[in-house]
């Protein structure tokens, strides 16, 4: 009892100290010696200071003793996002083979239903074919040199000493492998875009640590004049849209495709292949070009964000991961459709994939943890994600072709289906 009272007293002291400004938020962990108690102290202090109730935020299964220092700082609890499932979606990939149920964490009504209907059409037509064409996480340090001659010399010298650079970089990781270094020069400034195979990890941290070690070696051994300006020079390119990623790729470059039979398109999607093809060409191709978009698709970000949240990916990387191209053709009355994602950045180990609910979502896909061989699970997740994007893209194009989009959002986004209006059977 004395020990319990002592903890209660210390908790109250920390809460009051935060309220009075004598204790900083981050100091609660050290003072209480327990990250879960510190989260409670911060939450109680905020409630007192701001006059708000945070009990829902405090209701969580997360153990902050495991997460502080890895996934979060100054925690006060957790937020919850509804998790739906779409499927079954049949995938014929190199790593993903079979029928999958896709976990989608979202607050957008109609999204899960949209992917679900697309998955039905794809599966009834034989399934989606998927392949990872390229796999490489990039980090691009940027160097100063006094002039273009020195810049060119540095880039050439690094290529000549590739084995030494590789040895230094790979000394920091068990699974990371340096695949290549892509040099770029602008005036006297040099970018060296290091590209790694990172196993089942998304690999950004792995690439950063390895590149930092390699850059130190370059600066110690390069006989000319060069200075490191920044370990990331924006040619990586991370969490920003960039044509470089669309062309060279970052993470996984993945394609998923399917041939939707004409009768399935008419019966399930309520749209003819010709009309879906027209919408894709006019909206995704001409419309995107007219808008000056670097990406030609309808809503890849919707599906990728929902899968990223569900499976513990770095959500900010939806920016580049949702870049891509939708292509359609009418073939003998059927619809061929493909999605190409040049920069899909995801993994099955590290980061948020260790969170309990996210790990369960990965287990739902048979892709939790490290694969055998290493990298197999991440590539499996990439193929399933691309197939889910295909399903969602197909359904939205069909809904637009049939002029159903507004109705679907009215029924499923505003809850009118629940209140007794028409049953949205076209989204099941």
Tags for this model:
alpha+beta, 3-hydroxy-3-methylglutaryl-coenzyme A Reductase, Chain A, domain 2, Alpha-Beta Plaits, ten-stranded mixed β-sheet, 17 helices, globular, disordered C terminus
Quick rundown:
The chain has 428 residues and is an alpha+beta fold.
Reported by name, the CATH topology of the largest domain is 3-hydroxy-3-methylglutaryl-coenzyme A Reductase, Chain A, domain 2
Distance between the termini: 57 Å
Low-pLDDT residue spans: 419-428
**What is the helix fraction of residues, given as a range?**
40-55%
Using only C-alpha atoms, the radius of gyration works out to 25 Å
Task: Find the CATH superfamily of the largest domain.
Answer: 3-hydroxy-3-methylglutaryl-coenzyme A Reductase, Chain A, domain 2
The quaternary organization reads as single chain
CATH architecture of the largest domain: Alpha-Beta Complex
Number of strands: 10
Please outline the major beta sheet. Answer: 10 strands, mixed
> What is the CATH C level class of the largest domain, in words?
Alpha Beta
Total of DSSP H or I helical runs spanning 4+ residues? 17
Return the structural class.
Answer: alpha+beta
| Arithmetic mean pLDDT | 94
Shape: globular
Number of domains: 3
- SSE sequence, one letter per element: HHHHHEEHEEHHEEHEHEHHHHEEHHH
Taken as a percent bin, the fraction of beta residues is 15-25%
């Amino acid at each position: 009892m004395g020990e319990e009272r002592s903890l209660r007293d210390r908790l109250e002291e920390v809460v009051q100290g935060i309220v009075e400004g004598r204790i900083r938020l981050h100091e609660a962990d050290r003072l209480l010696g327990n990250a879960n108690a510190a989260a409670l102290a911060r939450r109680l202090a905020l409630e007192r200071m701001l006059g708000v109730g945070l009990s829902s935020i405090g209701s969580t299964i997360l153990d902050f003793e495991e997460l502080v220092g890895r996934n979060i700082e100054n925690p006060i609890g957790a937020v919850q996002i509804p998790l739906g499932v779409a499927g079954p979606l049949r995938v014929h990939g190199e790593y993903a083979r079979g029928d999958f149920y896709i976990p989608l964490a979202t607050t957008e009504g109609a999204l899960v239903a949209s992917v679900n209907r697309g998955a039905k059409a794809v599966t009834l037509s034989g399934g989606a074919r998927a392949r990872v064409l390229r796999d490489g996480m990039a980090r691009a340090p940027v160097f100063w040199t006094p002039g273009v001659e020195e810049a060119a010399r540095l880039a050439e010298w690094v290529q000549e000493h590739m084995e030494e650079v590789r040895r230094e970089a790979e000394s920091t990781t068990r699974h990371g492998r340096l695949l290549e270094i892509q040099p770029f020069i602008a005036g006297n400034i040099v970018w060296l875009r290091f590209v790694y195979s990172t196993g089942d990890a998304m690999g950004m941290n792995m690439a950063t640590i390895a590149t930092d070690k390699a850059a130190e070696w370059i600066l110690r051994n390069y006989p000319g004049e060069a200075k490191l300006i920044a370990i990331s020079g924006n040619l990586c390119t991370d969490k920003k849209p960039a044509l470089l990623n669309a062309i060279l790729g970052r993470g996984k470059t993945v394609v998923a495709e399917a041939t939707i039979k004409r009768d399935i398109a008419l019966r399930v999607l309520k749209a003819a292949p010709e009309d879906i093809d027209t919408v894709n060409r006019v909206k995704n191709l001409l419309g995107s070009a007219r808008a000056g978009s670097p990406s030609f698709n309808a809503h890849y970000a919707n599906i990728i964000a929902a899968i990223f949240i569900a499976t513990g990916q770095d959500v900010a990387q939806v920016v580049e991961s949702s870049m891509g191209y939708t292509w359609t053709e009418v073939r003998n009355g059927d619809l061929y459709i493909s999605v190409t994602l040049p920069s899909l950045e995801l993994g099955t180990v590290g980061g948020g994939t260790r969170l309990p609910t996210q790990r369960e979502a990965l287990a739902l896909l048979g892709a939790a943890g490290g694969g055998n061989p290493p990298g197999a699970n991440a590539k499996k997740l990439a193929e399933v994600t691309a197939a889910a994007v295909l399903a969602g893209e197909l359904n939205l194009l069909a809904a637009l072709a049939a002029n159903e989009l507004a109705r679907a959002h009215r029924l499923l986004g505003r809850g009118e289906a629940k209140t007794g209006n028409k049953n949205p059977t076209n989204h099941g």
